[in-house]
Inverse folding.
């Protein structure tokens, strides 16, 4: 408002819970202002707090909507997998003491791939109604040193979906669930069949996809 | 005290200002307790706050002293060198907008190498008395993507020495000082000849060296 002298109606690409991070995020807004895109970046960064930054800005067709035009998203969940915590990962990764078996976790993660009703992986609240079917196009676990990263991409996500996916993978890590049983957890369509909701601070919205818009 | 049931006299390897980070740090203490080293690590981490962690613990000769036995230290100063700030580097790197010329900075940093009186690079306060001579064994600037890292190792450091070294390098970056003039800044033995003290949050105590003790 300070920048454009008006209060534009801002649309964000997704809801993010407190303590969840975003490496990429898209908003759309309509303005009558004639400010150049490249100048808007600097002006917004000047007024925004230090923990948020605008990377780029561009003109889009009038029917573009940050949320409804979005064709998919990718999240990463970070786990610090070492017997001793890393203070530099505080609020940035979940600390998991025992050595994670990535073959086992990837076998479990593969069950998430494809089109499923993900009711088991959704915190039911007033915000979630309608179709619980989503298509997961990527679900893999990799290691970078002592960090274990779970990457998942889909055409859309239910409320807390990634965090419950991670909580369920950790059930597998603990031996409370066999990898292939994750398919049964999905099949159950019951939140109680899945693992707990992993804490928010390990979660990163990593990429947001749009048709014909390179991000 | 909670762990050992006594209040041991703890010696730290260095003073670190507020907001300065440490990737390695050494303390020494004498205890009558017979607790095993490996158990002490876990016990201390249990009681310590989340932003500090004990990595290892070992028995040393009785004359070992974390500060006086220390033969050298290495610091790294992190600069986020990009027109747009990175929220993930908040409190972790100094933000510098304009593209840094590493050849120029390395030419300047090379002046720090060797044995010099570093009076120009010391905040004078009641804590600093006596010999201001230190031997710098490493002083180099490198780039990792958009991060520019200044690494400096010496047998010891004066109060604020690295931060003033960085402030002086940034004077060189700004063209207010030519690289080879850094030698004159050292020669001046006058704090006013050097650049400003760079902010603390970009500074990391990276390594601490001891004779015959692998760290």
């Amino acid at each position: 408002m300070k920048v454009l002298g008006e209060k534009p109606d801002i649309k964000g690409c997704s809801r993010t819970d407190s303590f969840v991070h975003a490496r990429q995020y898209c908003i759309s807004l309509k303005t009558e202002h004639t400010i150049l895109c490249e100048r808007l970046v600097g002006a917004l960064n000047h007024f925004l707090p230090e923990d948020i930054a605008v990377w780029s800005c561009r003109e889009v067709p009038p029917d573009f909507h940050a949320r409804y035009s979005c064709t998919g998203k990718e999240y990463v969940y970070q786990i610090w997998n070492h017997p001793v915590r890393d203070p530099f990962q505080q609020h940035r990764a979940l600390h998991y003491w025992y050595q994670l078996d990535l073959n086992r976790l990837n076998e479990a993660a593969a069950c998430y791939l494809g089109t499923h009703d993900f009711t088991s992986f959704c915190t039911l609240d007033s915000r979630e109604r309608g179709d619980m079917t989503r298509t997961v196009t990527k679900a893999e676990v990799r290691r970078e040193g002592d960090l274990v990263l779970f990457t998942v991409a889909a055409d859309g996500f239910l409320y807390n979906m990634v965090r419950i996916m991670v909580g369920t993978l950790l059930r597998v890590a603990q031996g409370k669930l066999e990898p292939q049983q994750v398919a049964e957890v999905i099949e159950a369509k019951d939140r109680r069949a899945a693992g707990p909701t992993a804490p928010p601070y390990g979660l990163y919205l990593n990429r947001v996809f749009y048709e014909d818009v390179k991000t």
